[in-house]
Amino acid sequence: MSENKIGKVVVGLSGGVDSAVAALLLKRAGYEVIGLFMKNWEGDDTDEYCSSRQDLVDAAAVADVIGIDFEAVNFSAEYRERVFAEFLREYQAGRTPNPDVLCNSEIKFKAFLDHALALGADHIATGHYAQVREFLGEWQLLKAEDGTKDQSYFLHRLNQAQLSKTLFPLGHLYKRDVRRMAEEAGLPNHARKDSTGICFIGERPFREFLARYLPRQPGEIRVFGTDRVIGQHEGLMYYTLGQREGLGIGGVKGAPEEPWFVAAKDMTQNILFVVQGHAHPALLSDDLVAQNLSWVSGRAPHTRWVYAAKTRYRQPDAACQIEQVDANGCRIEFAAPQWAVTPGQSVVVYESRVCLGGGVIAGSAVRPESVF
User: Fold this and answer.
1) Calpha distance 158→96 (Å, rounded)
2) Burial class (CB in 10 A: 0-12, 13-18, 19+), 89
3) Which domains does the chain carry?
4) Residues ≥6 apart with Cβ < 8 Å to 167
5) For residue 112, with 0-12 CB atoms within 10 Å meaning exposed, 13-18 middle and 19 or more buried, which class applies?
6) Dist CA 37 CA 28 (whole Å)
7) Looking at the annotation, which residues are catalytic?
8) How far is CA 77 from CA 39, 85, 97, 162, 335, in A?
9) Rounded CA gap, 334 and 288, in Å?
10) In angstroms, rounded to a whole number, what is the distance separating the alpha carbons of residues 258 and 276?
């Protein structure tokens, strides 16, 4: 290694502008940088919805312009086993999982990290908008400077060993500055549109994709709290709490002209319950129970302290207290009712800008009749 190098870092290059600028900044900082493209999905490469081939081309072009070594690694087997299989199990159970959270903990910061260390890397880096710091001998995960792009929610399951090896070069930057840097450096993907969703679904209709693996199971749609049937659903796995679109409910005799929302699922009787109005009490929860907990420090937070939490990405922080923590999970109580708290999604707890960790939402503790 030449004298001006301050360490070897393997950067996950996705083909997007964020990871490209992350690699650029590390190269300028004096690191020995290797770009690595992760192929996490197979089976849809000829499909109009999957862009993995173009992603690879763009990532390779970025590495060439920056002047770094580049390789591609296929993690699709690990992805199917550790992420996609769990994704299907959760939907089949009527919950709404967040595969991006699992992908980060199982693929990007486990399989990818192991591969990078085998290459002799001192660190790995990604284009995530988050920050990591060492504080009093402990590694902390912090929110990004750009609050509109902060991705700490998706990273909350990272542990001390993973964070100690991770760099987030974009954590102190705003997205507009990242694009400007990419353009000024002549990166070929500087104007590329940000990707949305996860590769194996892409922009395709979600229900159509899920039906490939989980066959339709039609059943009744009923008004919440009654036996009144007002429609038919195609399968409880295709719906999530708070969903408004795609319910197929037209004008209902005797009902006001207000939109319908999914309020609950009865998995035993295969019934979808709906309510009218965004502010309906059945859509609000004062607390929740979370399981499969993961705390960044390795220790559970103090109970009864005032924290903030998100029950979904891009949600404003909600003041809360952790009422109890045990081997089965924890109960979190909110200062104000939260809308459409959804089993399968993650609840992530913060103390100011520090992400403490979180768990998978199992349901509401005070309104169990709404989660079957």
Assistant:
1) 21
2) exposed
3) 8-184 (3.40.50.620), 216-276 (2.30.30.280), 283-370 (2.40.30.10)
4) 9, 26, 123, 124, 125, 132
5) buried
6) 20
7) 103, 199
8) 10, 11, 20, 21, 43
9) 9
10) 6
Q: Is 65 in contact with 185 (CB distance < 8 Å)?
A: yes
- Nearest residue to 96 (alpha-carbon basis) of 346, 371, 344, 355: 344
How is residue 7 written in tokens?
Answer: 């360490």
Residues 198 and 205 sit within 8 Å (Cβ to Cβ): no
Cα separation, 294 vs 333, whole angstroms = 18
The per-residue DSSP string of 234-293 comes to S-GGG--TT--TT------TT--S--EEEEEEETTTTEEEEEESTT-GGGEEEEEEEEEE
Residue 269 binned pLDDT confidence (cut-offs 50, 70, 90): very high
Query: What does the block give as tokens for 341?
Result: 């708290």
- Phi–psi pair at 197, nearest 5 degrees: 75, -165
Is the pLDDT at 52 greater than 90? The verdict is no
When computed from its CA atoms, the radius of gyration of the chain, rounded to whole angstroms, is: 22
Relative to beta strand 138-143, strand 130-135 is: antiparallel
Which are the contacts of 288, defined by CB distance < 8 A and separation ≥ 6? 311, 331, 332, 338, 341, 347, 361, 362, 363, 364, 365
Separation between Cα atoms, residue 272 and residue 68, nearest integer Å: 53
pTM of the predicted model as reported, rounded to 2 decimal places: 0.92
Place of tokens 């490469």: 45
Helix (H, G, I), strand (E, B) or coil at 93: coil
Q: For the chain, how long is the longest CA-to-CA vector?
A: 78
Our measurement of the distance from residue 363's CA atom to the centroid of its chain's CA atoms, rounded to an integer in Å, reads 19
Find tokens 């940088």 and name the residue: 33
Question: What's the mean pLDDT when you consider all of the chain?
Answer: 91
pLDDT tens figures, 194-250: 876 666 666 678 888 899 999 999 999 999 999 999 999 999 999 999 999 999 887
